[in-house]
Amino acid sequence: MIIGYTSGVFDLFHIGHLNLLRNAKSLCDKLIVGVTTDELVSYKYKKAVIPFEERMEIVRNIKFVDTVIPQDTMDKLVVWQKLKYDVMFVGDDWFQNERWVQYESQFKEVGVKIIYFPYTKSTSSTLLNETLLKLRK
Question: What contacts 84, CB < 8 A, 6 or more positions away?
């Protein structure tokens, strides 16, 4: 059985999120998804529009997702030590990023493959947030 893992904030759920989850599930038998906690979101940038528990519930109910867990650390290796997944899925906007180049090296040592999926350029939570801010002015 191939266990896959991906993670994200999944705020303002959109087609890019769905594409990532659909594509990930097509390449593994069991897909585990980490949803970023509100505390970690505030560390990464500002504040999620949709509260953590609601984001967990949305992702939990996507048919491609088998298990949802809180993501309370940015350290993917710590998560791997708990879950022992075989493959990790991430958007290609992180490809060649210094942190992800390091992850590739670390994960190669333990037999985990990282697969980068094309980032959905037409829609993003950042773009949705910017649009909403403009509409509110």
Answer: 3
